[in-house]
Amino acid sequence: MKGTYDIVKDTPRFRAVEKAIHTLARLFNLEEIRTPHFEASELFHRSVGEETDIVGKETYDFFDRGGRKITLRPEGTAGVVRSYIENKLHAEAKNPQKYYYYGSMFRYERPQKGRTREFRQFGIEIFGSKDPSVDVEIIACAVLFLRMLKITDFAVHINSLGGEESKKNYEKALKEHIRPHLETLCADCNRRFEKNPLRILDCKKDTEHDALQNAPHPIDALTEEDREHFESVREILQSMDIDHIVDHRLVRGLDYYTHTVFEIKDTLEALGSQDTLCGGGRYDYLVENLGGPPTPAAGFSFGIERLLLTLEALEFTPKRAPLHLYLLSIGEKAKKKTPALAHKLRLQGVTTETDLVGRGIKAQFKQSEHTAARFVGIVGDAELEKGIVTLKDQNTGTEEEVAFENIAATIAEKIKQDRRDCDTCPERKGE
RNA sequence: GCGGCUGUGGCGAAGAGGUCAACGCACCGGAUUGUGGCUCCGGCAUUCGAGGGUUCAAAUCCCUUCAGUCGCCCCA
What we know:
single chain, alpha+beta, BirA Bifunctional Protein, domain 2, Rossmann fold, 8-stranded mixed beta sheet, 16 strands, 21% strand, elongated, RNA-binding
């Protein structure tokens, strides 16, 4: 299917990222929340916004057999907020509440580098505090996540839209500024002018247009209170040595954002034109708009596939743990005994492969190479008689005769020394 | 939704109208039926994404279609 792909060769890298997610969650004391992959279409229309591109042309919508209008989730926040309300999580004593999620999202777009129709996001949401420290915690969490993955080539872009009043002020100022230039702006911008003036700032076509270059800045329309909020966010970020760029054009493509919005962009140029690794911000009215009690909140989400592209560019390639043993049989008698022997060894934790094709001796040796087994165990008539296996250490090329019942222990003893070199550990090679 | 590029064996890749579709890697068999990694010998695409057309003749030209990829848009 267009825009989908199978995760086969990339599984180790996926696992490394997933492991980092769960570790990060512990560091920030986040609780995992898993919500459905589809929701009532209405939910996304009301939260993300009817006029946004995501809802306007990118959702997977369908009617189920009961005539309900269903949408495959295009983002994670709406579902989490719905769940927060339905499960009355706001009624719990502890506040703020911090959640994280990880899973597939779906958007009907033309695929390209860093963009597929089914893609995975990891995100966090913090409910119940309007304090600037939450805005900061979100950003710090995202930055820490990248650090954990040893990704250092990124830039944090930040802006503030302010609360309801500030947003209205700004839209008014923006429309006044744009109105005289409407004729020279692209068709999209003209449409946006009426539907969603904020989105004009995101236009890439008219990015050099004077009207946009000189557009008023959202932060200049902030109320005194909202301005202070933004200043505190920046101050705390600075005190944490988190470099950030105030990007006056950053408005985000979802309608629910208020106050702080941010994006983290890859600067390694590993991603082509889809260079946003993470996006997020504050959404103080969303819970209320979806029927919950007034609850300020903030969150972000990462595009996992883009993270993987970055890791790939950094040549971060975790490897599978090597196979312990390839059990090779010579002769019909031995061939019959091999499965039982392998079974016993696996029960003892020895990762074991045997010939399943009926290969000759030479071919089995070749096969043992392909499996990259550390040891080759040879079983033939001679061994069967003595109740032993000829165990060959592929690292040294030496052979020794080991009794059946001692194989597991012998292997365990031998690999003890190089266990520290275990290359399944997520830490970067050579560090 | 729009635009560019690509599509030859498991992979990479020659081939630009004319007998059998190079080559490299991988794979399989043998030289060597209890020891692999080297070497040597042999095998491995009735077919060039699919369908149609032009032609005496098409992987090569034309049309259609599908797939992949990159970009625009938008975003993660």
